[in-house]
Amino acid sequence: MKKSAILLIGIIAVAIGVIISTYADSSTYGSFNDAKDSAAELHVVGRLDLAKDMVYNPKKDANYFSFYVNDNKGTACKIVFTGTKPQDFERSEQIVLTGKMVGEEFHASKILMKCPSKYNKDQVEVKSTLQQS
Amino acid sequence: MDTVFIGEHLWPGKLGQFFVVLSFAAALLATLSYYFETIKDKPDGSWLKIARSAYFINLMSIIGIGSCLFYIIYNHLFEYHYAWAHSSKSLPVYYIISCFWEGQEGSFWLWTFWQSVLGFVLVRKAKSWEPPVMAVIMLSQTFLASMLLGVEILGIRVGSSPFILLRDAVQAPIFARPDYLSMVADGNGLNPLLQNYWMVIHPPTLFLGFASMIVPFAYALAGLWQKRYTEWISMALPWALFAVMVLGAGIIMGSFWAYEALNFGGFWAWDPVENASLIPWITLIAAVHVLLAYKHSGQAYFTATFLTLVSFVLVLYASFLTRSGILGETSVHSFTDLGMFWQLLVFISVFTLIAIILVLTRWKYMPFSAKEEETYSREFWLFVGAIVLGLACLQILATTSIPVFNKIFGTEIAPPTQVIAHYNKWQLPFALVVAFISGFSQFLKYKKTDIRSFYVQLGRAALIAAVLTGLAGYIGGIYTNPMFMLLMFSSVFSVVCNIGILYNAILGKWKLAGSALAHIGFALLLIGAMVAAATNKVISVNTSGIGFGQEFAKDNNPRENIILYLNEPIKMDKYTVTYLGDSVSGPNTLYRVNYQVIDPETAKVTENFDLYPNAQQNVKMRQIIASPDTRHYLWKDIYTHVSSVPLKEEAAHEPHEGHSEEEDFGKPSIRAVKLGDTIAVRDAKIVVKAIKKGVHVNNMALSANDVSVALSLEVLSKAKTQLIDPVFVIKDGNVYDFGKTIEELGLKIRFTNINPKSNSLELTIFQRPPAEKKWIVMKAIVFPYINFFWGGTILMTIGFFLAILRRRNELKTA
User: Fold this and answer.
1) Distance from CA of B139 to the nearest CA of A (A)
2) pTM recorded for the entire structure
3) Fewest Cβ atoms closer than 10 Å to its Cβ: which of A9, B387, B528, B646?
């Protein structure tokens, strides 16, 4: 067999391996209800519920942060994250959580926030010219 | 009805927009003229003259755009959206430069600027290559200029202009007022994370790298187009090396910025945006190796051409990924979507199609080699190495492109949950093979090698490497992991082989120094990245009581943050760590964290240093943006950042009616005392000393029937002893009193009554609740041997630079 043929087979084998691995390692987007049915970690996209309690009390535990999220199907769930409260958290528009359900709580291993970020939000802050008399 | 707006400076924007349009028109004209010059049978230079003038106008208008934009940002002309969105008045001058490329428009400008600077070199030096090469580059310039146009053509918005006015970009009622500008107080400011000196030089370097990727691409296209099939390779080689050097430096600067300024606690996160710039860099490195193989042996022509072409296409793909908004949920730091999805797609498609068409039409003329490479030849292993690099790219590309697949196929696949592990699983073996090949191929010669001497050299190097690997694995603490040990071996092996070459180079064959140095640098970079990533240790692990119950604790998650109270030392690893207070510098609050190593036997302090991790507090947004501080040692780094701090309250309380001072205090305690009594309050003792009758009270005319009594109180606190005298008054049958306050104790004492029956005096004591003890939550990580990573990068860059000199000299002597 020619060397080039061997090489070609090798390349194709690795390429197939890459594609399978990408697919096998990939995760899914789901809702909290999907998470209840699944043992594996998955991604849940949702919005922070600001009306409900957000707990981060470093004096009690610097590595415990809990909050509530409504997923895209409208299901609310309590989220627990081992770590500190991320910067900018309240202002996040959309949150992507990676993790799994433990009982009634969703334990997140990663939180990704999509912020409107003040640097892009087109909201002009106005200096008041009607300063009090 | 047109409103006349007050205070706007419209001329810099109009001038800037004029330059934008001019640069587009000039680039288009230059593209066409260079094209016609190239395809003319007998070039008489007439098209060339037009092309060069058009090129020059393009260069000048790009400089004009930059100057106008700088003028606008520098002078805080917030009537322009770009200045308003990306800068603020409080920004120091050197960061105004960073404002430039915070937005997409500015970074496009940077790209087109560098591309035109490279064009300047080519116009002067490329000689017969100038028309076809510049035709390609000016086509790219045309596309880049179109990205800045911001005009509507047939109802489609083309590009996004940096000179758009705030009142046109944003809809708000205030823009109906002619004096709206007087109400726009300040710009939005620069993202604090970008306020770092690395952000001043990282983007220009990165974009110079991106921009220079087009030159080898243009040479390859020109070679195929002009049927100069083999000539282009020597021409493209120094340019490819230049692009690889600059882009590599730019990527690592970004990594260093992430390490120094971001608090994700590492130097590489396999973020899609990082990957997007890494992929073309690796493919072009592969291309450089196969270009060399072809140059010296006549083998692997197609691979060399393909890799050169695909590298630039991947640059365009990278900019599509980061700018089109397609990464959406998968990346933290892509640009925001400016609605240029299709325009970017056209940009890639045009260049990809040109490349494919030229390759296909010239296929039968390509100098394919009939015979196979020898197994014991350098060109064969250069080729294999390039293929491995290509496969490594394929893997990164496949996972990074998941959002693109989702868009194309309408699927909803999420990226791997353990992203870093997923990439490492693949990239580690690839790196291992590449390092190994980059070692032993040094002992191979082009075409044919003496097998015996090859194995002798190989065996010797492998033996030395094995011994060193054992040592390094032990010191680095990775000897328990066979995969890490294998990578360590192949990297050390590569260093050993290349040091041999470097030694010879110093002895006389200096030309070889470049590649040897670059390979050594690359191998050291691998060692540093692996050891630092594998053995970095969070030392701030929280061992203190767990407050939220067993259910939570049993997950065995790493508890990587620790709370420090002011002046209360905590033991972390071998360090005794104390939070010693904070200071404010500009928008930053610096938290002083002291590290001490105390010898347990002699109780002497053997090491003592302060780190100042900082956080920008934004009171209005109630958020902090933290940046780490790192103690650098030769063999390790100690990296510290605050992850949570108490938010500062808004500075001034609005005074409002009905607000009494006593609201701040807690509930008062009422005490009946006699002369000579001592009463204890928090942090102090109060001794009742004396009574003074008939004291004079300001603004109160007292008659003989009125009573005014002052009580002398001695207040003893830890700090000092103070005398105060609250006053009790009865005037015309009404009771008044004048209390006294000691601010530093948060203490207010009123003398509120005299009880003649029991002969006692009534004191009403107010005390503020105890001030909250200051605290920070922080995280500390030790990164061992990370200097191999940075040092390897520097060696690699120097190596590339020497290689450029060598290949340039070859062109001159050829």
Assistant:
1) 31
2) 0.84
3) A9
